[in-house]
Amino acid sequence: MPEKLSRPSTRFRLLPLLAAFPLLAGCNMVVLDPAGDVAQQQGNLILVSTVLMLLIIVPVMALTIFFAWRYRAANKDATYKPDWDHSTQLELVIWAAPLLIIICLGAVTWVATHLLDPYRPLARTAPGQPIAAATQPIDVQVVALDWKWLFIYPEQGIATVNELALPAHHPVRFRISASSVMNSFYIPALAGQIYAMPGMETKLHGVFNQTGDFTGFSANYSGAGFSNMRFAVKSLDEAGFAAWVAATKAEGKTLDRNAYLALEKPSERAPVQRFAAVEPQLFDAVVNMCVEPGKMCMHDMMSIDAAGGAGIAGIHNVRSLTYDKFAARGSEPGYWGKRYVAALCSSPLMAKAETPDAAPASQAPLTGAGLPSPGKRAAPAQTALNAASPRPLS
């Protein structure tokens, strides 16, 4: 009887293995098995790069163990050559194999960098499913706030906080900015991450190939509420997306400039909010950092600078900076530099038609960077762009 008790039962031996299963439940393979075509291509790039590198790593690790065992001191049958110092064949293998791997990695990376450029409009929604020329992507304007996400749908005239809904099998174009510090917009199931920066606009193109509920989050530390800066992502069919838009319009709230200034103040664990109407060109005011009434927009300031400045009279055209990013830069009383120029007679913010996207993506094989050869005339579009650039006033 004592002998039987001294031996642990078989079922108790399996307890450590069973305890590991809850840990495995936390594994999320969404990066390698996403719901979007762009993210799937990025996942495939990770797999191809990993396999190419393992072609070197695995043989090296195996040969390390083999040589340590084959030429151990106890093995008297191993060849002993204390004066050996060179082998042409071995040198060729040592240098040629990694060089070929680097060439392959370089070629794959170069092609993927251009084809998966976040600014590049999509050419397909899935393998073998090109996008029709008449299909226009859905525009979503994204603003990273402290510590929440604001999504504006200019075509639908609605906005949401911490909730993003998109129709499946339809391309989407994100225009992304931030209100204060730099952040990073990331939906693993849709596409790769891209930074959101104040006073700047970045773009991201993507498409969902299946319906479902997913998660997006901030991938760049931005302060105390960063860990909870997550938002729900819904991939819906066409009918479901239309119903969601209708439900959002029934909420009754309006997102104007005053509402935005109240919304952008720091808050953590912000609940989902919906706005039935949005003030036109609010996003462009956010990018130009002139949501505050009377504050000059950056595009106005740059236009004045490009024209040679506002002259000596512009020295007196300043107002005290009473609000500029809650308790942040410029909010301290004091120096001359803690002021901003008030709005002059300025041009309106750029409309959507005045901010064209890049040229539609071609499915032809990628053969170069698309730059004209030295000595050749520039393309007509480039000539028109140069002609439209601002020039100093005479």
From TrEMBL:
It comes from the Bacteria. One of its GO terms (molecular function) is oxidoreductase activity, acting on diphenols and related substances as donors, oxygen as acceptor. Gene3D superfamilies: 1.10.287.90, Cupredoxins - blue copper proteins. GO terms for biological process: ATP synthesis coupled electron transport. It is a multi-pass membrane protein. The chain crosses the membrane at residues 45-69, 90-112. Keywords: Cell membrane, Electron transport, Lipoprotein, Membrane, Oxidoreductase, Palmitate, Respiratory chain, Signal, Transmembrane, Transmembrane helix, Transport. InterPro entries: CcO_II, CcO_II-like_C, COX_ARM, Cupredoxin, CuRO_UO_II, Cyt_c_oxidase_su2_TM_dom, Cyt_c_oxidase_su2_TM_sf, Cyt_o_ubiquinol_oxidase_su2. Residues 135-247 form the Cytochrome oxidase subunit II copper A binding domain. Pfam families: COX2 (PF00116), COX_ARM (PF06481). It is found in: Cell membrane. GO terms for cellular component: plasma membrane. Residues 23-120 form the Cytochrome oxidase subunit II transmembrane region profile domain. The keyword Transmembrane helix applies. Belongs to the cytochrome c oxidase subunit 2 family. This is Ubiquinol oxidase polypeptide II.
